[in-house]
Amino acid sequence: MSKITTIIFDMYGVIIEESKGNFIPYTYSHFEEKEYERITRQFRVEKLFGKAGNGEITSDEFLSLLGFENTQYHLKDYIENHLTLDAGFIPFADRFAGEYEFVLLSNDVSEWSKYITEFHGLDKYFTHKIVSGDVKCRKPERKIYEIALERTGKRPEECLFIDNTVKNLLVAQEMGIEPVLFNRDKEEYTGTIVNSFEELELVLISKK
Question: Of 2, 21, 119, 173, which is the most buried if we count CB atoms within 10 A?
Fold first, then answer.
């Protein structure tokens, strides 16, 4: 059995408490009701959010298409005031980042992920950040896990993957990566489940 050397973290629902983010309700709250039909079409039919998260359009283009005028203001306002860093992550990272290689694997708009990690002072913990908007693919596509393994130079069995979505964990498990569900959304799962970074710490200790 290989020793775990690398922990791969999801962002939303793990490091950030909001598992689905808050951006869609944030958008509706900034426009009059007469704009709701247009906004709904842009999210559901035109799939602008998905395009931004896949790197097909930039954050500025995405926000402008939605009708936001000061795009940089809204990027910062949303991240700083409408997303919550899990208070347990930094103490956990301070304890374990020297012992394990920390890798971020996130479905996100490139500019948003960069701002989140800079704003919260997280960059020092991650040796690699694989973001869907940068690599043009997203979980649970197998390719993004392959990119993570290639960039880290790790074998699957050396990696522990923490995510809040079962379908993402199942693909990782098929590839030989050990999965752990960070269960923000109370999903049913037969594998290892944690509800906090304190519980994740106990999982790591059990594997030594």
Answer: 21
Backbone φ and ψ of 160, nearest 5°: -110, 130
Give me the helix-helix angle, 110-119 and 59-66, nearest 10°.
Answer: 110
In tens, the pLDDT along 8-20 reads: 999 999 999 999 8
Query: Which of 128, 112, 121, 20 has its CA nearest to residue 59?
Result: 112
Concatenated DSSP letters for 39-59? Answer: HHHHHHTS-HHHHHHTTSS-H
Tens-digit pLDDT profile for residues 167-190: 999 999 999 999 999 999 999 999
pTM strictly above 0.85? yes
What superfamily in CATH does domain 6-18+84-206 come from? HAD superfamily/HAD-like (3.40.50.1000)
Locate the DSSP E strands across 67-147. 101-106, 126-131
Structural domain spans, the chain:
6-18+84-206, 23-82
pLDDT in tens, 80-110: 999 999 999 999 999 999 999 999 999 999 9
